[in-house]
Amino acid sequence: MKKINSYEEYLSNYEKSIEDPTVFWSDIAKTFHWHKQWDNVLEWNFDEPSINWFKGAKLNITENCLDRHLDSNADKTAIIWEPNDPKESAQHISYEELHQRVGIAAQMLKNNGVNKGDRVCLYMPMIPELAIAVLACARIGAIHSVIFAGFSAKALSDRVNDATAKVLLTADYGVRATKKIPLKEIADNALESCATIEKVIVFKRLDGSVNMKADRDFWWEDEILKVNGVSAKVESMDAEDELFILYTSGSTGQPKGVVHSTAGYMVYAEYSFRNVFQYNDKDIYWCTADIGWITGHSYIIYGPLLAGATTLMFEGVPTWPNPGRFWEVVDKYQVSLFYTAPTAIRALQACDLSFVDKHNLSSLRVLGSVGEPINEEAWKWYHINIGKGNCPIVDTWWQTETGGIMIAPLAGITPLKPAFATLPLPGIQPCLVDADGNEIEGNDVEGNLCVKFPWPSMLRTTWGDHDRCKLTYFSTYKDKYFTGDGCKRDEDGFYRITGRVDDVMNISGHRIGTAEVECAINTHETVVESAVVGYPHDIKGQGIYAYVICTVFDDESLMKKEIIQQIIKEIGPIAKPDKIQIVSGLPKTRSGKIMRRILRKVAEGDTSNLGDTSTLLDPSVVEEIKIGAIK
Ligand code: PRX
User: Fold this and answer.
1) Does the beta carbon of 485 lie inside 6 Å of ligand 1?
2) What pLDDT, in 10s, does the model give residues 200-232?
3) Which of 26, 228, 471, 577 is deepest in the core (most CB within 10 A)?
């Protein structure tokens, strides 16, 4: 696949992609390996919604990730794995070896009863076997659902049950810095309420000292041996067959399973990877995300492997054994393309600069950012101290639902502006709308961000509940996909994402619904009601502030600890509130609606002007909340 080489070429490609999307995308799609060509490039209807890209085509995405590269690049490293502990050995897996290991793992799944269309849940640490398992599912047409290994047993069981998954792949333990995470034990707790799981296949990351349930639990290593080196037959998939489900938070307490399909996702993953990062064959590419999130799916596994790149997978954390770990790894492998989250940048920015200056970093060519708005200060620190002023920063805006990067500079091609995601990729038609749903034309404007034409990697449905997909994304504004984000378009037509306009928070780049945290808090027996809001946080971008009404309690600090424990149990440590304020009432309108605007202001520490509180049922609760506000 050819990539865009200049700004003029970007502009002309963009124009072509809007004037004739069919020709534009079919030219790109031709560079892939298909069992059968498509009958029609695009059929769509945002009302239902019904989206079909490359209808009638047959393919397997893993042949495009693996087999396609074997003739010319069999020995090239596909995956570099850097373990949590730098003293442990790294792994270099070539395209040939990855091809073989995926084929065998796919046969292992087959032997354990997994067939096309079955759902397989993956609750695994950041080890090569996770990438292998993802690809093995795709090889035989099973739908993978990766569940971030930081989620609790309850969160895991909710997702397994929603997907009615047949098999769970996990590990004995995960390791992060000095912590040992008992993944199998958590999975065992989850599975007590999961009737559909028939088998659990467990990879031994540590010593295997875990309970194994007879006839249900099997060791990965044993199951692989039983395959006798035979690779599974590749399943020929329809273009629109589901490739994966990935759960994400919305404005209700129940996470939704975003469904991506095969051909469109594939075409857009490689196209966006090559163009945004301006990938060259010799690049060493590192995305620090976890495969449990969409970034890991599209830009650790699929995008880079489709492009035949070397992709680095890191098991550890940025600050252990010391805050120079990222930079040490960059030097160790001569990483040239580096993609991380603003929260990691801010955390490292807060550490001594000597942790950066010890390292050379001259291999770096492009820096990326994803997951939340990157503030100007962090942008500059990243640019000067990590990129030494020489590396373009691609601030990439996208979502679980969009499947791939939507608005971002093409590295070294698009003019940069700190804190701006800049311009849409070819094929992407963003628009801003006002509260009445009218499109806001022109520049120097602000509104809600929508997309008014389909793109290949857009979500197709939400698992098991198509109406929810329609309601959440396609009903707010007619004939438009609504992102849930607010956005500015400046005088040059450049886009700057300003953050969510719904009840979704962005905590360290993790998307968490306020309703989800409230539901978790409300499971505590003495909690009557709660309201959760996000507030600005120096490192995490947003922190979680919870207002909680309890019945009786003796010890406030004990009560707060119990609430935190409850959240860890229901969701996981990522949803722990930073501040909990026990209150006797919440500011509600006469119709019973919580006025979150007031709670947000108090959480921000700005109580000077709370606006009109006269419509409140009981304005005195506001005074109490102000007095008890946690600094
Ligand atoms: O609010 C936007 C923010 O993250 C949300 C999507 O979260 P998720 O589905 O978890 O995917 C994260 C990784 C793609 C968006 O609705 N967001 C993501 N990237 C940016 C961003 N906000 C501002 N700038 C970005 N570059």
Assistant:
1) yes
2) 999 999 999 999 999 999 999 999 999 999 999
3) 577
CA distances to 255, 256, 590, 593, 613 from 617, rounded to whole Å, are 32, 34, 5, 10, 9
395 lines ligand 1 (CB under 6 A): yes
CA distance 82 to 310: 13
What 3-state DSSP class applies to 82?
A: strand
Neighbours of 68 (CB within 10 A): 18
pTM over 0.85: yes
Q: Is 250 in the pocket of ligand 1 (CB under 6 A)?
A: no
Question: Regarding beta strands 256-261 and 284-287, do their DSSP bridges make them parallel or antiparallel, or are they unpaired?
Answer: unpaired
Q: How far is the CA of 192 from the centre of ligand 1 (A)?
A: 34
Q: Where in the chain is the domain with CATH 3.40.50.980?
A: 89-235
The span from the CA of 141 to the CA of 371, in Å, is: 29
Ligand 1 atom at minimum distance from 293 CA? 10
Q: Which atom of ligand 1 is nearest to the CA of 400?
A: 9
Domain 504-628 superfamily per CATH: ANL, C-terminal domain (3.30.300.30)
Q: Is the CB of 506 under 6 A from ligand 1?
A: yes
Query: Ligand 1: does its nearest atom lie under 6 Å from the Cβ of 400?
Result: yes
Cα–Cα distance list, 382 to 23, 286, 342 (Å): 39, 16, 9
Tell me how far apart the alpha carbons of residues 206 and 261 are, in angstroms, rounded to a whole number. 35
For residue 510, report the distance from its CA to the centre of ligand 1, in Å: 9
Query: Is the CB of 372 inside a 6 Å radius of any atom of ligand 1?
Result: yes
Regions in the chain scoring below 70 on pLDDT: none
Other C-beta atoms closer than 10 Å to the C-beta of 584 total 13
Which CATH number does 89-235 carry? 3.40.50.980
E strand spans, 8-89: 40-45, 50-55, 58-59, 77-82
Q: Among the atoms of ligand 1, which is closest to the Cα of residue 374?
A: 24
Residue 253: the pLDDT is 82
Over residues 423-453, the pLDDT tens digits come to 999 999 999 999 899 999 999 999 999 999 9
Q: What residue's CA is closest to ligand 1, atom 13?
A: 371
Cβ 373 under 6 angstroms from ligand 1:
yes
Ligand 1 pocket, 247 CB below 6 A? no
